[in-house]
Amino acid sequence: MTNVALLDDPQVLPFAPILWLAWADGDLSNDERALIADQLKDAPWLRPEARRRIGAWLDPSAPPSAVALAALRTLIEKARSSLGQSQRSSLLLLGQAMAGSGTTDESKRAATELIDLLGWGAKDAAAVPAFTAIEVPTAALQRALDGDRPEVRAQVRAFLDDPERRMYGLSKAEQRAKVRGWLKDLADSGLTKLSFPGVTSDTPDLRSFMTAFETLALGDLSLVVKAGVQLGLFGGSLYFLGTDRHRALLHDVASLKMLGCFAMSEVGHGSNVAELETVARYDHETRELVLHTPRESARKDWIGGAAVDARFATVFTQLEVDGQSHGVHAVLVRIRHDDGSPTRGIRLGDCGLKMGLNGVDNGRIWFDQVRVPVANLLDRFAQIDTDGRYQSPIESSSRRFFTMLGTLVGGRVSVGSAGVSVAKSALAIALRYSTERRQFGPEGGAEIPLLRYPTHQRRLLPALASTYVLSFAFERMRRHFAEVNTQPDADTRELEAEAAGLKAIATWHATRTVQLCREACGGQGYLAVNRFPDLRADSDVFSTFEGDNTVLLQLVGKSVISRFSKSLASGGVRAVLRMIGKLAAQQVLAKNPLEIRKDDPEHLRSRAFHLATLKYREESLVRTVALRMKKRLDAKMDPQEALLEIQEHLVAAAIAWVDHLVLRSFEEEVAKVSDPEAKRWLTRLGDLHALARVEETAAWYLEDGSFAPEKARGVRKEVQIAMRELAPAATGLVAAFGIPDACLSAPIAFFDPAHPP
Amino acid sequence: MTNVALLDDPQVLPFAPILWLAWADGDLSNDERALIADQLKDAPWLRPEARRRIGAWLDPSAPPSAVALAALRTLIEKARSSLGQSQRSSLLLLGQAMAGSGTTDESKRAATELIDLLGWGAKDAAAVPAFTAIEVPTAALQRALDGDRPEVRAQVRAFLDDPERRMYGLSKAEQRAKVRGWLKDLADSGLTKLSFPGVTSDTPDLRSFMTAFETLALGDLSLVVKAGVQLGLFGGSLYFLGTDRHRALLHDVASLKMLGCFAMSEVGHGSNVAELETVARYDHETRELVLHTPRESARKDWIGGAAVDARFATVFTQLEVDGQSHGVHAVLVRIRHDDGSPTRGIRLGDCGLKMGLNGVDNGRIWFDQVRVPVANLLDRFAQIDTDGRYQSPIESSSRRFFTMLGTLVGGRVSVGSAGVSVAKSALAIALRYSTERRQFGPEGGAEIPLLRYPTHQRRLLPALASTYVLSFAFERMRRHFAEVNTQPDADTRELEAEAAGLKAIATWHATRTVQLCREACGGQGYLAVNRFPDLRADSDVFSTFEGDNTVLLQLVGKSVISRFSKSLASGGVRAVLRMIGKLAAQQVLAKNPLEIRKDDPEHLRSRAFHLATLKYREESLVRTVALRMKKRLDAKMDPQEALLEIQEHLVAAAIAWVDHLVLRSFEEEVAKVSDPEAKRWLTRLGDLHALARVEETAAWYLEDGSFAPEKARGVRKEVQIAMRELAPAATGLVAAFGIPDACLSAPIAFFDPAHPP
Question: What is the distance between the alpha carbons of residues A470 and A635, in angstroms, rounded to a whole number?
């Protein structure tokens, strides 16, 4: 007899809500089971058949199937819709409604006692069968997510928890004014000085700085970018590329006395920074640098702050000394007087309306023989001595170029983690709405919450899991970044690849997640008041700024296949060959036929399987792309052309590498979590993330022969099970993001439309 | 010796540009080959070795590999960058630059003669190796795309080709005013009357009407939706649900004398229309209907036109006659006086700022015992007779409901095809930009156009191919729709499923395509002036309005697995069982081991393979989902609950069904194209679409065992080849969309940033 049929007994029905709740979190504890069984064992009024049926529902060796549980849930929902609002929160009345005339005094008493013994109050009953049924250790999860700088997060959250920090429907000028005001508030609150390198302390606490940035991204993103330009890019350029006389200015940067911008991009050269055309010629007679825009394609473009607010700019320019070009360098230039008028030789323009981030005044800069003292050269990595000679401790101009570009690494980590914050906001709104909003339902029954629909779970829950996992990956990234940055002369190449790869994956994740969330909220998601339009539009540029994602993944790919990208770019094949030899030796993961077919849940749910699977894909793709590269170089193909031909393969290898990195990082961080309940939920989230990722790339494993069809099927099934497990905990899991209510300012996050049930 | 090495001969190099151009379209004609070979056969100055090498390049049985062609292209680009602007358009000078000192008088003369004989003028040379190299029969392709109503398209294009029809950066009020003005222009131009049912002619020319709508969607989408509400939804409701006295009003609808809206959605019931709560009670004493909003969740919401402009509304409401409810019916209600003030008992609200489409005034309506004469009941499918008795020729209330909802079918076709128009605009801008904008390039060489990057091709070209294919699928859909609608009492269920499925697939395609295009244009794509922000924001709601895509796909799935969805919804299992029997009999596509491994290009490029592959997937998914449904119904599970459990599977089956439908429709339409060159390009586009779709779902075929790994690999490789073939034709292919320049008003579509090369 199936479990479903067990419900056909009027003596069983009064206990049905209890049976459902007992299994609701997918895990009936032994104590609960024993308690229920004991209580009913000797009940004389219970027919033996009814007792047997109840016993069957409690058998831990044969738990009810998903089909049975779903059928039970339907019965409960039907009964529930027949009750008044106040009665719905009673497990007892619910059972009676289900049993109808089958209710007896004995069954009432027995059910009452059971509910009492189990310690299930009205709260639990109200939750049958809604999705708040399962409590999660929100506080412990938030502690885990907040990582090593909870005090910084608390400060930023307090700053954000103010309804005045939200805007929409304003004109460009109004938005810019708002953001200017907020930036001032941020400085007044002391947050811009908080662990700002060179200000609060001489040893920079970059980790706190980046944590603050990530947290700030729970609020308005124009403010995030505006602050990022002023402190991270402008301030960062003085700190990382300048020397003491430049670092002395950082106090004024933090206090906003000195408003700056970061003038790198040119309209003709978005991603290809090495080809910038702006020139700074050194004039030894006056000890000045003369900056010039030689043609229109060299105009500085997209420069945040340049349209209105910035008084200073760190300008990236080709440096010419004595007629010789030394590649790209950074020079500090005053572009506006205090009254806002442009300084001599400077022309400024406005980029105009953008898809989003209109609180940031992106602008254009043209230089017409602009003269600045040579002291304005940010000269940590290259100097012009008093004799007018160019000097640099880094001989290779390409190595020097990449060292300077290192300033972008911190920005990439920050933008990537801001993407994770965006995903958190979107998921919090959508999941809160989805657990309350009901549409359609069983014939004659109440409508059911959107999140009970598998297609709805599919949209939101893997995204939730990945958001958790990425959040931890960035925590590890920040730690790693801070560690490397405090070691002088550390090799930063792996760090750069990690930052670039994480940035690409996280920002695309944000774009996809906001879109899924907006669609999951239907028309409500389309209203500006519900935040998705701005979340969507503001974060969209994340995938192309601070390095276009596709370009970044090629950098990652090159770095990964050779760990020696420079020699590869200049045609050196030896590094590639060495690498291939090493990888071939690693090819020990033979396709074990047992492993290939293994599809039991225990195996599929083990982190060892997830990690090995992602690692295997990474290594295979890296090896094969390296071999293809070698073949082309052997045929004397131009290395650039060869890279072009294998580009898709290269990007796939880079993504596989990042996938593995992300899961490893997550494991590393979660290992530190002490609360066992929190850890259990994190493990489940990690499972769903890893399984969904493997499912997404199943074609690769099947084609490779490392998965038999039954294994791919097993993975798909396990993804579905993991989603079902997480759905009832969704609102608790997003609560752990610790998003201030004022940031969550979408009315639908608090469910209105229009106040049922 | 490889082809690449063949280039190492200074006597070969002067002819290299000619050799490249000869192969550039992937297809060296026999005539061209013979001509070149003849011309050089007896050249006495040519060393036998050099002659042999040239001959090897021209061997049709061993065409140059992709690697060889790419290497040649690199050499050409390098030479090209050494030439001045005016010299670059000369094939001769290009060859000389490549040969350097290897150039002789003889080689010059021979090359000159060859170029002359081949009839390749400066135009071809300028195109080496840019992407305009390959000419496509744009006019013939446009004729094919324009389908059966070219004159309608021409009229709408003329209307749109006006720079005044574009806006951005305006406030909500300004946008609404603009759109109101444009709608008036549209009426003044006679376009609103054009083939408007019941106005121009009594037999409606729905095909022209829908073609006009699709073409209008090349311009501002607020105008499209505003016109769609007035003519398609409001006018359509009078035409389809009303009788003669209502149809008499259509002249005033077309002239805009009578501005209306379509009040269906309620805030509590977005997709679940059957559960609407607004009530119209029939009062026999006064022969009036009394409309009322019983609670807040019943307020009409999202109603386009309700916030400001509409004077009338078609209101969908539960009809109560003599205390008995008869389900949802439509009633014509005046909601505003001519001066714009609400009529008695009507309260109106504004939905506020939306992500996009802010030129449409979406609003809310509440009814407080609003009385209208019974004559206002749109009574084609149900009447209240003079005795106050409810009568309907359709007995089943659910059948009646779905018949009335049939009015939405036309809207779905129109929204879906508007999505295709949006994709066309986005692709036209992005592909035009990508063929001109250059970033990075070989060491020491010129930067190369974005579209030469395989990852860039991957973003844009499958989307281009699918846009073509979908465009034809909608042409067939419109024809089919018009045919069925002119047959009285035709069975419209398959038509409804087709419309719902195409709408879902096409609008998601639009969302994805605009996003890909915006990212492919980098920062430029983020500027409002370049159109992507509005294309993105305005079209985003397409996936949730006129039926949420996921909900629609479930309807499709139910319709497909049973072709009898009503009996399924009401729990009837017999239809399902019959279906399963039928499908099992069709399971003749055995997994032939030869077929499974077949991976030769000829096979992979055959439409028979594409169609059979899509069909096989469709039938397998439909069969398995039907079996799973049966299993649950056998276990006496609630049908609604059973549908919930198999929901993901059901949606997958629906998508597979639509995939097959789309390709079949494309084939049906392309078969009518007479121009052989146009047909050749359409076939290539169809190939890329089909192969990319198969590649995307490769995991399914691999898991199913119907593809061996080598076949999946073969498909992937063929996708890449198809992309390489189409890339050089991209701008010609988007030119065939016939988008007026004023609509393409993105500056980057005409390439500026900032005027290189």
Answer: 41
3-state secondary structure of B720: helix
CA angle in degrees (0–180, nearest 5) for B647-B650-B653 = 155
Whether residues A441 and B570 touch (CB distance < 8 A) is answered with no
Closest CA of chain A from B575, distance in Å: 19
Among B301, B352, B356, whose Cβ lies nearest the Cβ of A529?
B352
Rounded average pLDDT over A505-511: 98
Is the model's pLDDT at A228 over the cut of 60? yes
C-alpha span between A355 and B366 (Å, rounded): 35
By C-alpha distance, the chain B residue nearest A532 is B355
Ranges of beta strands (E only) in B389-443 are 390-391, 438-439
Which of A197-201, A708-712, B558-562 has the lowest average pLDDT? A197-201
DSSP A336: B
Q: What is the mean pLDDT of chain A?
A: 86
pLDDT of residue A49: 81
Instruction: Spell out which residues of chain B touch residue A302, defining contact as CB-CB under 8 Å.
Output: 523
- A300 phi/psi in degrees, rounded to 5: -70, 135
pLDDT digits (tens, 9 = 90+) for A121-151: 544 554 455 444 578 999 999 999 999 999 9
Instruction: Report pLDDT for B753.
Output: 56
Mutate to test the interface with B, among A275, A354, A355, A461 (most CBs of B within 10 A): A355
**What per-residue confidence (pLDDT) applies to A633?**
83
| Interchain pair A753, B705: CB under 8 A | no
pLDDT given at position A131: 41
Cis peptide bond upstream of A373, omega within 30: no
Q: Are B703 and A705 an interchain contact pair (Cβ–Cβ within 8 Å)?
A: no
Partners of A753 on chain B (C-beta within 8 Å) are 267-268, 297, 301
Q: Which of A641, A651, A711, A755 to mutate to test the interface with B (most CBs of B within 10 A)?
A: A641
Give, as one character, the DSSP assignment of residue B262. Answer: E
Query: What pLDDT is recorded for position B572?
Result: 47
The continuous run of DSSP H or E covering B374 comes out as none
CB < 8 Å to A536, chain B: 355, 540
ipTM value = 0.81
Substitution target in A434, A517, A640 with the highest count of B β-carbons within 10 Å is A640
Distance from CA of B534 to the nearest CA of A (A): 8
Q: Do A272 and B447 touch (CB under 8 A)?
A: yes
Shortest Cα–Cα distance, A219 to chain B (Å): 18
Q: Tokens representing A158?
A: 């307090």
Q: Are residues A528 and B755, on separate chains, in Cβ contact within 8 Å?
A: no
Higher pLDDT: A118 or A281? It is A281
Model confidence over A53-83: pLDDT tens digits? Answer: 888 777 777 777 655 666 676 677 667 656 6
Give yes or no for residue A97 having a pLDDT over 60.
yes
**CA–CA distance, A658 with A653 (Å, rounded to integer):** 9
Cα nearest neighbour of B754 on chain A: A297
Cα–Cα distance measured from residue B393 to residue B409, given in angstroms and rounded to the nearest whole number? 21
The Cα of B248 is separated from the nearest Cα of chain A by a number of Å equal to: 34
Q: Look at residue A272 in the predicted model and tell me its pLDDT.
A: 78
Rounded (5°) CA angle A587-A591-A596: 140
Contacts of B431 (CB under 8 A, 6+ apart): B451, B460, B464, B730, B731, B733, B734
pLDDT in tens, A522-537: 999 999 999 999 999 9
| Closest-CA residue to B312 (of B343, B287, B282) | B343
Hey, are the CB atoms on B699 and A704 less than 8 Å from each other? no
- Interhelix angle B676-696/B709-726, rounded to 10 degrees, is 140
For chain B, residues with pLDDT lower than 50 are 1-2, 25-26, 122-123, 126-127, 130-132, 564-572, 585-590, 756-757
